[in-house]
């Protein structure tokens, strides 16, 4: 089954199903999705989106981003949650061509894991609710904030680190469209950094390795910094693992 689901105006909507968990089960198909901004969902895509039966939408963007770029329209079939993942400002338009992409992104993810503790935990609680799935979470590009939530969820579901890294890297398939969108957002500023829209596996590897050096693993981080306990992990397993 193909992970990326083709839409006319969404570049990075994909299913997190199919990954093997440590207990022998797999992440269920059609229950947990990650995406770029659903505010871009065009009228021609609506029928396809609603056919997925999504019941929970978690928008990780700041309210001002939602105001500027729009959000998915309210609909009775799903609950919408805007939980903005706190992080320090990123001025990627100011970066030069020599700025290492993987190092820059890994450092930003480490900051997000510290700055966004309350919001990350809130997202986990929303997705662990009995009536949450099928669920989709997204930010603007479905790459950074979404990538951290996806990595954490997959880790808590018992998915191997190599699969977590590979899932993150799938965003590379849409990078040309992301870069074009970002350049359009900054028409008066030349874009010289080669990292626009990029999701190199090396960035996630760096983040995971440095997180593990401090907490032992992503699950250790979740327990120590987010207060994730066995009850929450069991709830996530019940919602999103099958077989």
Per-chain topology:
Layout: E1 14-15, E2 26-27, E3 32-35, H1 46-51, E4 56-59, H2 63-69, E5 79-82, H3 101-115, H4 117-128, E6 135-138, H5 145-156, H6 161-169, H7 175-185, H8 201-215, H9 218-226, H10 230-240, E7 241-242
Parallel strand pairs: 3-6, 4-5, 4-6
Antiparallel strand pairs: 1-3, 2-7
Question: TL;DR?
Answer:
By secondary structure, the chain is an alpha/beta fold. The protein has 10 helices and 7 strands.
Please bin the fraction of helical residues: 40-55%
Strand content: 5-15%
Order of helices and strands: EEEHEHEHHEHHHHHHE
Q: CATH superfamily, please?
A: Protein tyrosine phosphatase superfamily
Arithmetic mean of pLDDT: 91
Written overview of the protein:
Helix content is 44%, strand content 9%. It is of the alpha/beta class and 243 residues long. The chain has a single domain, classed as Alpha-Beta Complex (Protein-Tyrosine Phosphatase, Chain A). The strands form two sheets. It has a five-stranded mixed sheet with strand order 1-3-6-4-5, covered by helices on one side. A two-stranded antiparallel sheet has the order 2-7. Helix 4 (117-128) crosses helix 10 and helix 6 packs antiparallel against helix 8 (201-215). The longest helix has 15 residues, at 101-115. It is globular.
